[in-house]
Amino acid sequence: MLRAVGAIHTYATRPAVYVEYDSASPEVAQHAGRLIEHAAPGTMAEHIGSTAAPGCAGKGIIDLMVLYPPGQLDLARDAIDVMGFQRQQTGHAFPEDRPMRVGAIQYDGKEYRLHVHIISADDPEVESLRAFRDALRSDRVMRNAYQARKRAILQSGVSDPADYTQAKSEFITAFMNGRSASSA
Q1: Is 181 exposed, middle or buried (CB count within 10 Å of its CB: 0-12, 13-18, 19+)?
Q2: What is the pLDDT of residue 165?
Q3: What is the DSSP letter of 160?
Q4: What CATH superfamily is the domain 8-174?
Q5: 7 neighbors 84 (Cβ within 8 angstroms)
Q6: What is the DSSP letter of 138?
Q7: 136, 159, 160: which is closest to 21 by C-alpha?
Q8: How far from the centroid of its chain's Cα atoms is residue 156's Cα?
Q9: I need a surface site. Which of 61, 88, 92, 107 has the fewest CB within 10 A?
Q10: Alpha-carbon Rg of the chain, whole angstroms?
């Protein structure tokens, strides 16, 4: 059984690299989510992104979507800040009315970086993030194409986290637009 040590640590910005899937990611996400839910009552943390899809490689950063009840943004954001999560300093800057916080946690002797997306439970973005995660989990062809896209971005020389995120967002947007067209 894995064990967690300590609390939220300072997030270290590093160049984007390709990291093979870490089978401990779901346990780390679950543990971090429980910490957040305890600190911010009424919220619900959900594991999203590449690390939520078994076998899917990526940057190795664990993304959590923290859902708060409508109208409770300030309470949720403040509780997450008090835990030690930090405002992002690089990458796509999320506005404070849809914030993202960053941090790191030690788990079984290894440091894991976290991106915490704080979103109202009634925001349509919630279903989009779930749909992308679920597609990564269930569609091997799509998952392999996404991994190939990420490798190609890095092989092209992109290492700045913001540039990498922008480059891979084109794939995600194309997926979501295709999903919308096929469900219409």
Answers
A1: exposed
A2: 87
A3: -
A4: Beta Polymerase, domain 2 (3.30.460.10)
A5: yes
A6: H
A7: 136
A8: 24
A9: 92
A10: 16
Q: What is the pLDDT of residue 5?
A: 45
Q: pLDDT value at position 4? A: 45
Mean pLDDT by 10 residues, the chain (184 residues): 64 93 97 96 97 95 98 97 93 90 96 98 96 95 94 93 89 75 42
Please check whether residue 86 is in contact with residue 102, taking contact to mean a CB–CB distance below 8 angstroms: yes
**Cβ pair 116, 99 in contact under 8 A:** no
**Rounded to two decimals, what is the model's pTM?**
0.90
pLDDT at 182: 45
Which tokens is 126 given? 């919630």
Q: Report pLDDT for 6.
A: 52
Pairing of strands 62-68, 44-48: antiparallel
How many angstroms separate the CA atoms of 89 and 14, rounded? 12
Whether the Cβ atoms of residue 108 and residue 125 lie closer than 8 Å to each other = no
Q: For residue 180, which amino acid is it?
A: S
Which pLDDT does position 34 carry in this prediction? 96
Q: Give the start-end residues of each E strand in 34-161.
A: 44-48, 62-68, 86-87, 100-107, 110-120
